[in-house]
Amino acid sequence: MDYKKIADEVSEKILSYSQDTAGWRVIKVSKNVTVSSKPSQEYAGNIYRGEGIIKEVPGKIIPFMYLPEYRSKWDKALQSYKLLERIDQDTGIYHSVTHSYGMGLISSRDFVDLLHVKPYPGDILTTNSISVDYSSCPPTPSCVRGYNNPCGYVCSPLPENPEHSKLVVFIQPELGGMLPGSVVETALPATLINLITDTRAGLKGFKDRN
C-alpha cells in the first residue's frame, strides 16, 4: 500500500475542506465550540466541522492531540490509542478504541488510521487521516470496526493574538453496525465538542503540572 500517496491525497482533501466556505449549516454551539455540517462527498452521511479557540500555539496543540503519550491521558472518548507502525517522522498507522456512547446506545468502536502531519506557511499545522486496511490489526469481536473517511485537524495562530490558536476539526466517520441516523447525528456533534473541550482541559492540566 502506497501510504505516502494516500497521505498526500488526504492532505489535499483536508486543505480543501478548510478552504470551503459554502453550504455549511451550524447545528450546535456549546462550550465555545461551533459545530457545522454539510452532505459529505465521501459517503452517504454528513461531514462535520468543529471550531474553537485554544490558548496555545499550533506547534504544541497538534502533537498533544495525536501523539499517544499525550492523547491517551486526556481524551475521555478513547479506551486506548496506540501507534502500530511509524512510516516516517510525520506519518504513522494508529489504532484507536472508543468507549461506548450514550448509555451504551453506540457500542465501542475501533479504527485503524493512517495519520500524516503537514505544516503550511503561517505556522499552520494539520493532521490528515483516513482509515486503512492493516493486516496485523484485524477487526475483533469485542468492538465494531469503524471507517474514517478523510478527517483531520487544522490549527492556525490567531492573527490578533498569536499565543492563541483556532482549531478546526473535520470528521466524517462510518460507525458501522445498525445505527439509526438520528443517533449518529446527535453523537458526532457531541463528539466534536467534547474533543475540543477535552483538548483545552488537557493542555491546561499539562501546563499546570509542568
- Give the uncertain stretches in residue-range form: none
Radius of gyration: 16 Å
* Main beta-sheet strand count, sense and barrel state: 10 strands, mixed
Number of strands: 12
- N→C terminal distance: 41 Å
Structural class: alpha+beta
Helix content: 25-40%
Proportion in β-strands: 35-45%
Helical segment count: 4
Shape: globular
Describe this structure in words.
By secondary structure, this protein is α+β, with helices and mostly antiparallel strands. Helices cover 30% and strands 41% of the residues. The protein contains 4 helices and 12 strands, in the order H-E-E-E-H-H-E-E-E-E-E-E-E-E-E-H. The protein has helices spanning 3-19, 58-66, 68-74, 181-209; strands at residues 25-30, 33-39, 46-54, 78-88, 91-98, 109-120, 124-131, 144-145, 147-148, 151-158, 161-171, 173-174. The strands form 2 sheets. Strands 1, 2, 3, 4, 5, 6, 7, 8, 10 and 11 form a 10-stranded mixed sheet that branches. Strands 9-12 form a two-stranded antiparallel ribbon. A hairpin with a 2-residue loop joins strand 1 (25-30) and strand 2. The protein is globular and about 50 Å long. The relative contact order is 0.22.
